[in-house]
Amino acid sequence: MNSAKKVLFWDFDGTLGYREGMWSGTLAQVAREQGGLDLPVEAFRPHLAQGFYWHDPHTPHPHLTTAGAWWQGLHPLFRDAFRNVGCEADTAERLAQHVGPAYTHPAAWRLYDDVCPALDALSERGWTHAIISNHVPELGELLAHLGLSACFAAVINSACVGYEKPHPAIYAHALREMGDPDVAWMVGDNPIADVQGAEQAGLPAILLRKTHPSVRYQSQDAHGVLELVEKAALSRTANRL
Q1: Is 90 exceeded by the pLDDT of residue 103?
Q2: CA distance 111 to 148
Q3: Burial 77-104 (b: 16+ CB within 10 A, else e)
Q4: pTM of the prediction?
Q5: What is the number of other CB atoms lying within 10 angstroms of the CB of residue 56?
Q6: Contact by Cβ (8 Å): 135, 157
Q7: Which of 60, 62, 64, 91 satisfies CB 3.0 to 4.6 Å to 87 for a cystine?
Q8: CB–CB of 154/178 below 8 Å?
Q9: Phi and psi at residue 17, to the nearest 5°
């Protein structure tokens, strides 16, 4: 159990890193590389707008916390997406099996340029970092490939714990994992999953790389996180005087 007193919980996808093409681009890539089909990315998007576990975050899935079960649970979504863009049934079935390996291929993932300097600066100020992410079971391997493993004291991944943000159970799990720190924030790019979910769990939250009129703390880049948490600390100190 980590005894850190100040913890920053970070989302991963869209906050720290990203995959070129995301899910729609992955299916288009699979269609091209495995099926010789030139299908536009845009054709897949409507068929992936629902069906992932995080699209129904109020339904836990503790029975799908092994990689095999997790990916198999999404197989119908991918198969039907290929069918809906015109693939024959047997082709769609075959292509769907390639989505997982293509999506998690390390070469497709990138870090935002501001991430490592911001993490280092915050660590120097006494902050411990952890991840709370709705992600694939292979998130740990992706973090290792990107050189981030040593930056985080814990990785709380929905694919492994069976709860999706903004479900309160994943935040409760994260706080327990980090030893119930005295001060903790959530940083992420989703105003519902990251900000609203964290605030409902009692954590202040920073919306990163996006803007939203209802969010109090926002920053366009990771460098701004340090300024926000330090200003909040000064405000708390002043209020106690």
Answers
A1: yes
A2: 9
A3: bbbebbbebebeeebbebbbebbbebbb
A4: 0.93
A5: 12
A6: yes
A7: 91
A8: yes
A9: -150, 180
